[in-house]
Amino acid sequence: MITTIALAAALVACNNEIQSDGTGQQAASGDPATKVPISFAALGGLPQQMQDDLIDHFPNYDITFSALNLNGLKGHAIDDTFPDLVLDVDHLATPNEIWEQVRLDLTDFIHAQEMDLNLFDPGLVEGVNAHDNEEGHIYQLPLSRTFSALYYNKNVFDAMKIRYPEDGMTWKDVAELNKQFAGTSYIGFTPYTSDITLLNMMDEYGLHFLDATTDLSTVLSPQWTELATLFRDLIAPAAASQVTEGNNPSAARSLFAYSGSIAMAVGDGIDLLSEGAKGGQNLDLVSFPTVDEGTKLGPFQLSTTLYISSTSKHAKEAFRMIAYLLSEERQLEYAKAGIGPVIRTPDTMEQFGAAVTGTSGKNVQAFFKNASRPSPEASAYENVALQVAVQQIPGLANPNVSVDDFLKQLNGMINSAVQDSKANRS
């Protein structure tokens, strides 16, 4: 959880009406034999607005869209059946052993299109290309970013006569607010309305699950103990609340957006505003809480990234699609639709979410209050550890298990999973 590069080359003008058929394959126009075939695979599927835009603006391309799941390209043949263009997030769909074989340096395409990489947020392009890249190649470009914030329900705060949260709060401030709902019919806080709350907090602490050099778990470090203790302080009260589903991650979103039983929640993007409006809740948001007061140093905002495979026979055409999606015009439209821009211009920030129901009069600018901490180098097996950890984190709320014991158990499980992954890879 995410505006832009200067628009490059001349794109083919669209004079024909082309529509998506809803299955990922566009309706054809003209002679298919003369079209350039491009396969575009995206983790979770490419947003329909982007599919429609590409179809409309590239009538001479025969674009096939497909959705990828976690590790969706694992075991894929490295040949001309591999997708020409891929949208991924931190290689969740493209395992490292595949990525190392299909990555293609985009530098020549960038120069040919005269793209201005300075329009990106400082360090963003370098950050998404940092892993295993001593040569400094540009293998992928960011398309969108996940902006996170602390949401709160004004109805709940009004009922309890408690002052609303404010921009610039720390996690300790949130924990103190959370305590004021103890013993009431409300849950003070839940992190489970976001899939990446823990990752965001790890970023703020500068932590990974694994040491980048040894691939061993780091969760027994003092900083991890501090983070885990804070996380327990935030989630444990919900387990003891009067709301029976209080510590059920799968129920958190509906409880917050529709039932009005949760006071504060973490949200990625502006979808929660829309859902809250549908659920009759008066939701608003403030900046993502920080570790230290006054730092304004938030998490590294998770980016979706675009890459072209080395097996593509139409890399030049595929890059024109990248250039179009990253044009200032398109990125502004996507920002209005609530898709996080990768370059912060005055227009994309001011108009972020303007076309989304429920955002009028809300503190949407809270998404842009914090600066991002640079993401430290990560192990090639970091996602293996992540998949183990996310299944175990709710167990931190168990009062019968100490934080130290929890982390010791997690440490063993992570190291075991990494060893298994290495064995399977060899």
From TrEMBL:
The reply on keyword Cell membrane is: yes
**Coiled-coil region list:** none
Keyword set includes Oxidoreductase:
no
Q: Which UniProt keywords apply?
A: Cell membrane, Lipoprotein, Membrane, Palmitate, Signal
Cite the Pfam families for this sequence: SBP_bac_1
Alphabetized PANTHER family for the sequence: ARABINOSE-BINDING PROTEIN-RELATED, POLYGALACTURONAN_RHAMNOGALACTURONAN-BINDING PROTEIN YTCQ
The protein depicted here goes by the name Extracellular solute-binding protein
Q: Which organism is it from?
A: Paenibacillus lycopersici
